[in-house]
Amino acid sequence: MIENQRHLFEIPEDITYLNGAYLSPLLREAAEAGKLGVDRKVHPWTIFRKDFFAEVEEVRALFARLINASADDVAIVPASSYAAAIAGSNLPLRKDQSVVVIGREHFSNVYQWQWRCREIGAELQTVPTPISGNWTQGVLDRIERRTAIVAVPQCHWHDGLLIDIEAVSAAARSVGAALIVDATQSVGVVPFDVRSSKPAFLFCSGYKWLLGPYGLAFLYVDPLFQNGTPLEHHSYNRAGAAEVQSTDGYTDEFMPGARRYDFGERSNFITLPIMKVALRQLLDWRADNIQCTLAPLVDMINRRARELDLNVPAPGCGASHFTGIRFPGGAPTALYETLIAAGIHVSLRGETLRISPYLYNSLADIERFLEVLARKF
Length: 377
What we know:
By secondary structure, the chain is α/β, with parallel strands linked by helices. 34% of the residues lie in helices and 14% in strands.
């Protein structure tokens, strides 16, 4: 269990922020690092060629440690949609094959596969929302000999319902399909090991559970796919880029590993320092400790919601770091607005009220939310 860490964030006393799955607040230290980055851009004569490479590699290596990967396996990209596009353009897909996704999945892990299937004439198989809450079985039921790609999250972004990635990975491998994992709502707070789950590609936006800035994301690429084609061609992913001072001579050779997939302006002197501070803090806390600390808060929300006859994930079916409440007949009129007026911040995703606490939250924060919720029932 980790002691309350609210002092590391700038959250006013009258704000109950239970919305980390939407946008995390920055750590105070990370915000200061970003301000120093702004100051460097104000004084660009302090930035040298080597600075375009050193911090990038530090951040790459830090993220790799979160998922038990090598730094060579990680590309730095601007968004999850960019990462999905890299996966989509580098995975084979034929007209007689299919791609499996889940219903109500986040747009970044659906639009790419819709496009590819339309382009080629392949079939997009969407697993419907399971009445039982068992997404895993629904995905497994649709993996068969025609399946080429399985694109799923570790937990559903609406309510935290879990998918057994290792079971899905084994099923995908058994038919020669590639596994794509959207880990935006899990990595950083849930332990993840690419060596055991074996995704072809895994991507993760930085601005949620990684406590990072908007506009920065990470892409893990299995070594089998590290010789593919990047979305863009620029000097910073080419061999010898750190020494190149002009256009005297071009090279077709890329930097080693997944670096060929890096986006062109990855060397951001504002976002990278923010991300570096955040990743170091996450590694210090450790994902298993964060999960252990948040689980009692989520359990409390679920238990009290059930007492109000509201629908939440069944025990053992939902994530330990966030949950979703569904209401018979739909969300009560003005509930979301009532919460905001009380200084309580959550998300409404479809008909699901998503509550995502973090280490800056206490039992008192949960009680404050539950008190407003109970007044509506």
